[in-house]
Each structure stands twice: as C-alpha cells, then as structure tokens.
Amino acid sequence: MAGALVAGTAGTAAAEPATGVAYPAGATSTRVNGWAFDTCTAPTVAQMAAWKASSPYQAVGIYIGGGNRSCAQPQLTAAWVSTVTKQGWRLIPIYLGWQATCTHRTTALKMSSSTATAATQARGSAADAVTKARALGLVGGSAIYGDMEHYDLGNATCRAAVLSYLSAWTKELHRHGYLSAVYAHQDSGARHLAEVYNSTAYARPDALWIARWDKKTALTGWPLISNSYWASGQRAKQYWGDHNETWGGVTLNIDADRFDAPVASVGFAYSTTTALSARSGPSTSHPVVATYGAGAALRVVCQTYGTKVGTTTVWNKLTSGAYVTDYYVNTPSNMTYSYPVPGCTHPYQTTTSLSRRSGPGTSYGVVGTLPSGSLAWVTCQRAGSKVGTTAVWDRLTDGSYVTDYYVATASNTTYSAPIRRC
Predict the structure, then answer these.
(1) What is the mean pLDDT of residues 132-152?
(2) How far is 21 from 418, CA to CA, in rounded Å?
(3) Average pLDDT, stretch 399-408?
(4) Is the pLDDT confidence value at 12 over 80?
C-alpha cells in the first residue's frame, strides 16, 4: 500500500456516487482542453521535443503500470517525466489492470466474477497505480485512468463485477488523494458506467475517456451517455485508432484523442534567486513554515494569486504544500503565471445540480449551472450566505461561485484543507 495520507485530510465525504478526494497538502489538478495522443511505449525525449515543436498535440498518454500492460517502457522514468513536462507536455497516466471476465482481449489477466473479490482486486490496482505514479513524480490531484477494454455487453455477471471493480478503483484513488478516471469502450464499460451514473450503489469516476474510432472529435452527443454526465472538464474521446503520424521528421504509431479532462500534475523544477521564506498560505501575513537559501531547488506544482511582492501577486505552491512568492523564483515571468505551471485547483464532484453565481451568495445572479456529478474546479473558498449547514462558498476557475454545501469536499460546515481561502 502506498504512503500514508497527509494529516488533515481525514473525514472526506464518502457517500456514493460522489465520493470526495482526500487531497494531500501539495496537491493540485491539471486540466487539458485540446488534442492528445497515446502510444504503447513512451517516446524518447528527442521524439517528444520534435512533436512538441511541430504537432498540434498538447498531451500524451503514458502506461504507468498494471498486470496487463504489454509494452516495455525504457523511457518512462521520473527524469523523463520532468524533462517532457518542462517542454510543455501534459501527461495522461494509464493503468492497464485487471480486465473483465468477458473481455474481448484474448490474452488478459481477468478479474474475478465475484463482485467482492473484484473490488478487492481494484483496491490493490489503485494502490499500485498510486505507487507507480508517485515514483514518476505525479503528485496528488493527478488523474489516473483505469483502462477497461471492450467486453461482452450482455453478460450480467461480468457487468456487475466490472462496476464493482471501477467503484472500488475510484474510492481507493480518492482515499490516496488522486482523481479517478476510466478509459472504456463506448459500447461496454462507458455505457454501463452511464447506466449507474446516479446510483448510490457505486462511486462515480471523476472523468470518462471513451474509445469510439469513428474519427469524430465531439465530446458531446455520445450514444447512450447524457450530455449532462461528466459535463465539466470530465470527458475525452479516443476517436482514431492505430495509425502513423509524422511531425518534425519523427513518425509514431498512435491513437488520436480529443480531451477536456483532468490529467497528471507534477512538480516543476525551479530555484530561488535569493534567500526566501515559504509560508502556509499565499501571502506575507501567513506564518513562515520553511526557509530557503539563494539558489535552492524548488518543486512548484501550481501558481495562485496572493499579496503583492515586488512586481507580482503570483505565488508558487510547492510539493510540500507551502507557498513562496514568485518574485524571487526563476520562473519565466515574475509578473504573471508561467506556463507550463498550471493554476492551483482542487476539483470535487457536485452532489446535485447546482447554480453557479457571480458572487458568494444566493443574492448574486446565476451565470450557469453544474449538473449533478460535475466537477467543481475549486480555486479557493470564502464566506458567503448560508446554505444548508454552511456559509462556505467555492470559487471556481472561471470566477463563478457555488455553495460548498452541495460539493463533495471534506466538510459541509467549514473550510476544507488544502483549499486556500479567497
């Protein structure tokens, strides 16, 4: 089993289908909205650099583990992850674990037909996936995609085992502070997950990546899957199977994907330009929790706004969960965010359909809605008008607010660590 959870994350909402995520202090989540590809063996650093310079792709699927992973991964190391993410690539971790008893794969390790045993197998797979992810430098808040290949749609016993497996996969990843995602065929796993989307018998994955090789890239209008399901940065589609593409003089055999979904988060290597204090929050009024000398190495997971220092209001969140002003860190800019470092966010599922408002209270205008099960991409929390048992409101990445009462954070009475205060 992977390492212990960080203190302060206990008590996360656990009711199905919208189970909460026990984010550790140094967690953040990263969302990709654009083109991606996956290939069996991770390409070399040089191949990735050539494609980054000339291809339309933003993200790449990497097979991090699982008993059914078939390709060798000589490139896939923590150093490779650090190098290619600094190039600007986003990574999509894929874990090819136990497959359905009625899978169409002729050579596969198959899960038990017992729902209880399948759930146990899933917990082992999820724990192993977290261990593999951490070894590569993929931090809490990363999404890990459990790969469930196509299987017999009409086998009821098989269906029950798969749903039990994927529910346990989700809850175990959440317990370790990672987002749960599933790659599944449109006509089996994806269809069955949609059938139980609102069922209290199963934990719902945070994101769904379907396989449907029709060369259509739309992330809506999927057969038998309502557009209100996985509706907020929670969808991806593998729309074109095995084929060769050449970019920058490098040819790779790939599957092509359209993404608007969570992917991996990493710690980006930077250094201090002077002696620097790390604080418990993104402002000089927060207590000092660590100090760094000039030239000290830092691992930055995300950036957020706080009190102004020098020319910037940007603060860097470190893998420790502490914050340092960006003004004294050698990121590309000391005035604004520096790509490829993402903005800090902690997504949680909504427990019902929810209005997004222009401010933190029910008196503010409605600017949109989040259907039940959507991800609320929370950047910070602040007080507002009371709803149910809480006066806490969550600010989302688009600047709108939702009451925290209907979001699966750790508490629906007070603030939830590690989300910062607005």
Answers:
(1) 98
(2) 11
(3) 98
(4) no
What residue type is 366 in one-letter code?
V
Q: What are phi and psi of 32, to 5 degrees?
A: -110, 130
User: Which two tokens mark 137?
Assistant: 């430098």
276 has pLDDT over 50: yes
290 — phi, psi (to 5°)?
A: -165, 160
Query: What's the N-to-C CA distance of the chain in angstroms?
Result: 35
The whole-chain average pLDDT of the chain stands at 95
Which residues are CB-neighbours of 121 under 8 A, at least 6 positions away? Answer: 97, 98, 111, 112, 165
- Joined together, the tokens standing for residue 2 give 């992977």
CB-count burial class (<10 Å; 0-12, 13-18, 19+) for 279: buried
Q: How far apart are CA 205 and CA 229, in angstroms?
A: 11
User: What pLDDT, in 10s, does the model give residues 104-116?
Assistant: 988 889 999 999 9
Q: What is the three-state SS of the chain?
A: CCCCCCCCCCCCCCCCCCCCCCCCCCCCCEEEEEEEEECCCCCCHHHHHHHHHHCCCCEEEEEEECCCCCCCCCCCCHHHHHHHHHHCCEEEEEECCCECCCECCCCCCECCCCHHHHHHHHHHHHHHHHHHHHHCCECCCCEEEEEECCECCCCHHHHHHHHHHHHHHHHHHHHCCCEEEEEEECCCHHHHHHHCCCCCCCCCCCEEEEECCCCCCCCCCCCCCCCCCCCCCCEEEEEEEEEEEEECCEEEEEEEEEEEEEECCECEEEEECCCEEEECCCCCCCCEEEEECCCCEEEEEEEEEEEEECCEEEEEEECCCCEEEHHHECCCCCCCCCCCCCECCEEEEECCCEEEECCCCCCCCEEEEECCCCEEEEEEEEEEEEECCEEEEEEECCCCEEEHHHECCCCCCCCCCCCCEC
With a threshold of 0.90, does the pTM exceed it?
yes
pLDDT given at position 15: 87
Nearest to 190 by CA among 156, 217, 162, 215: 162
